[in-house]
Amino acid sequence: MKTFNFKRAVTLTAIAVCSFMAVGNAYAGNNATEKKKTKELYIHFTYNKQQGPGSNQYAVWIEDMKGNVVKTLFVTSFTTKGRARAGQQADRGYHYRPTCVPTWVKHANAEAMSDTEIDGFTGATPKVDRCEPRFVWDLTDENGKPLKEGTYKFFVEGTYYNNSIVLYEGEFNTKEVISIKKSEVQPTQEHANMIEGVGAEVRNKTKKHLI
Fold it and tell me: Reduced to 3 states, what is the DSSP secondary structure of residue 79?
């Protein structure tokens, strides 16, 4: 039987003008099917494309209350893969611009991750001027194990422009989202709408699992 790699279980499907990302278990075998009710965390926000250097980078991830990263759901590709410049080999974007989602870089210990690990959650920055990225996570960790009962945090971090950064931090448990708060570093009114309307909910979902 082929072994399923949970770290690569990320499906990206176009919806409307942006993207929908489902993160977590896709299947558990290849025989009969049964319906199983599961919980999932749904995160969404409005993205508005910005003009200028060092802009349009964002990351979405989960931590426990001790600050340990449980799972990274998404990071824009420039942050993790960079861009090849004249006469140079492509390097990770946060090396070139240390203000690229620095909270995620530090908390996730990105420097210790292999390129293969990073590929599992990296995606392109939306090319449209405005869209609504959506993320659905099945409340499992990097090894596909269900979360233990308790309180956790989700983060949505965005680099507006150069050193301007926004961080949304939400608390939730396996039943509900408790709170969402916003903080900024060197905010600029001109670029402040890059990420807005961040919302989340824990909801039931009935899935078909292959067993």
Answer: helix
